[in-house]
Hints:
heterodimer, A: mainly alpha, Cytochrome Bc1 Complex, Chain D, domain 2, 2 domains, two-stranded antiparallel ribbon, two-stranded antiparallel sheet, 14 helices, 39% helix, 3% strand, B: alpha+beta, 9-stranded mixed sheet, 17% helix, 36% strand
Amino acid sequence: MNKINLKILIPVALLLIISAFKLTESSLFYVPKNWPEPAYDFSKNKLSAEKIELGRLLFYDPILSRDSTISCSSCHSQYTAFTHVDHDLSHGIDGKIGTRNSPVIANLAWSKLLMWDGAVNHADVQALAPISNPDEMDETIQHVIEKIQRTGIYSNKFSSAFGDSKVTGERVLKALSQFMMTIVSSNSKYDKVMRNEEGFEFTEQEQRGLVLFRKKCESCHREPLFTTHEFANNGLSVDTTLNDFGRMKVTQNPEDSLKFKIPTLRNIEFSYPYMHDGRFQKLSEVLKHYSHGIQTSPTLAPELKNGIPLTSEERIDIIAFLLTLTDKDFLFNPNYSYKKAE
Amino acid sequence: MKKSFLVIILLFSITQCFSQTDNITITFNPTLNNKQLVLDTAIYSIDENLTTITNFKFYVSNIELYWDEKLQYQESNSYHLVDINSPSSLNIILNDSKNIKFNIIRFNLGIDSITNVSGAMGGDLDPTNGMYWTWQSGYINFKLEGTNTACPTRKNKFTFHLGGYSSTDNSLQKIWLKTPNTNEIKIKINLDEFFNTIDLKQINSIMIPGKEAVKMSKIVSTLFSINE
């Protein structure tokens, strides 16, 4: 009897342990159904609850700014899909000031190049850009590291995440990266309809919008991430006060002039203002732009040569569809929200 | 039993007599006006202008030793930040490099493309060492800052941050140097050559990747030579 009991008990216990392990693994990060594999190499920065937590605390801590007034969340607020509504970033070298709109932070694990012009080549090093002022960069980031080390508040956080309390650039960056990787939006009405979840279906208007969207917008804003992660010129006129030529600044290739990263449209309802310079306040303005505001230039995307003529009904239908990309589970996910290191 | 033990010890000590008992050390020796470079100290360089170097750092990676064409030694995880401000960084000790016969040393001045796109790393590669661009990802391979009275800029300042890893503006330089088979490979960096070659009136600031950075990287790679 005893022997039999053990024979059953051991595998059952093992199974339980394995499934518990799987549960914690998948609760840190999982690839939603029907989504492609992520671009981020998790093997080089293995997720752990402690590192994610540390990243989250750092994300919300103004200690990362030179004068301890601004945190990442100042410009990336959860309730607006981690964008910022009315603040521009001074950005550039040689004292040149460019103004860009802060993009949505969601599903970054599937992105390779970051920033509107792809200037950042890996999520781990993203945080360096806002933290530092290019003219004084060597001092500033080191100073931030020293400040974190000095506060002492973080020492047990670093210990539990990395084994000892030493604060290094690599650790700060990787922890921030881990937090950002876990920010995933995949629970909008659109997603639920696509997964055939019970009780979710599109209205007729949303359905018409989806059909139009797939015809006119899908080449760039590809499902399910609503971006191909490529760069394109979508026919915005050049703002002569900014003279921002996008991707060309990085590649110095004239063929990349006026190309910007194709942004995701998930949670677009909340991520206004729109475009790299935040020039449009409303989705109706964006749709009017595609319909009859396209500026031609040598690098304009070929599919936009003649604009995307849309009647006002069609524009409203597309907007109705875009609103199904709002993901309340994401916008109010308690795992992403403000938390203070203590 | 005892005898064979003695024999082994004897054999061992004999082989030791014929080989290098220490690991190989590479020593970098930057010079200005044929004297060892001292940061923040004004000195007349060969071009007869008063020169002060305030910051001088560069990356050395993928160190290899050759006997003619044949690879004899390859340092693993070979990434070193050499910072003139930190004297210990001027000496690189090659692990497991005893008993190696070589007549050529080869290394990269800078960081390879793959490492440039692999995210945050630690140690000498930590992006907070002041050798990483923040507004556009990528390592700075070579950094030289200072003043020179011929330089027509504010306070005669010159600033060279050389880097760039993409195919079109890859500024990584492969350096090959003939060297004697010694335990201490001494590499001189002759900054006078730099001021002789470059017209600071024309070029005094490079801070972004591109054609200029590639051109300048080629020039600075020629400053390295073996000090026999």
